[in-house]
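Run: sequence + protoporphyrin IX containing FE -> complex structure.
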Amino acid sequence: MTDTDTMTQEYPVYEHDLFAEDALLNPFPHYAALRELGPVVRLREPDVLALSRFQDVTNALQSPDILISGEGTGFNRFINQKVPEPGVLNSDGERHRRMRLPLMKHLSPVALKPMRERLRTLIDEQIDTLVGAPTFDAITNIAYHLPVEVVSELVGLPAEDRMKMIRWATASFNVLGVIEKDGEMIPELKEDLESAMEVIGYLRDLDPDTLRPGSWSAELFQQVREKGMSLADARVSLRAFVLPSLDTTINAMGNLLDNLARHPDQYELLRNDPSLIPSAVFEGMRHTSILRWFSRFAAADYVSGDVFIPKGERVMILFGAANRDARKYPDPDLFDVTRNPADQLSWSAGPHLCAGKHLARMEMEVMLEALVNKVARIEADEPVRLRNRGVYGIKELPMRLFAA
Ligand code: HEM
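>> structure
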């Protein structure tokens, strides 16, 4: 027996299927159990080593040379190996840097600053139509609003395709998880896998002349013409502007609205002191993390503190579990808008730190600015939760807004 075998056998095992419906609907007791069991826990299905404690997750994300993304970041062979032209998320080293650069040109805080007012106007107008209205769905009426506008106005995709994009984005996150049972594709996921491939085809074949002139994606194709960027790189970058930007921000907004409706004292704090808005956004992300998990592949043995991962293992990075680790955040289940957890991990960390973090923050901040100005009280009925295997979010959130 090798040293590696000995260490492998020492891992505590967690038997519960994290992709089972009950765990998808309420992952938090499972996150707590994993954190309790040990720094590294073996899951049965998928057969991966899970990291759930804040410091261990942070360290792993900062070790991209050993825990790599280039072998895929999902939990099934198909999504890890068969997606054509892997994008920025699934690349390492020099290729990763090359793919990320054209995105950050538009997504840095400085580049985004001039967009803030436009986004604020858009959300102000939308909230005005909802204040005092009978019960409405906050997901389609508030949370969709800015991310969808961003995709057509800033990214520049044809407006008629933007709602299709939401279905495609949801499907793409759903097939990040386990998609097979006993070697067979789970039937209800077939359609989502087709959608995930369809959107890659759509973005690959998109006619650059249909893109809004002056938009981020039109500029990518301009770089192909004028600066020698390869067409393949431009199309992969286009995908990075669109696919990770919708469901993530929509669900982040949905979860934040739900939290504020359920904690009127916290909403009152924001109304009395709007300078707490940036902190409330971080706290929403920490408390109710959107992306459940991504994975890494151990290209060599990895050792950090109490964590040992042998070469060849797939590692599950549990953002939502790390963000509720009491070793890092006292009373972690409490939603507290004064906490300001700027180092929370919902946007990941290290070189793959979400490229759209500043845009998503800005969208959430302007939404809260509009609300605290116009709305005295937010009321919500029970949400219908998504059963998505990649994101933790809300499908429907019946809501009422009372005028300030
Ligand atoms: C609240 C909203 C969002 C959340 C929770 C979120 C979360 C994440 C996470 C966790 C990762 C890192 C995955 C990893 O470490 O493997 C990531 C990467 C990424 N996100 Fe976001 N994201 C959000 C919004 C956006 C937006 C608005 C955009 C684009 C406009 C975007 C574009 C990207 C891209 C391109 C990457 C890959 C970065 C890289 O690999 O270097 N995201 N996101």
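>> summary
The radius of gyration is 21 Å. The domain at 3-403 is CATH 1.10.630.10 (Cytochrome p450).
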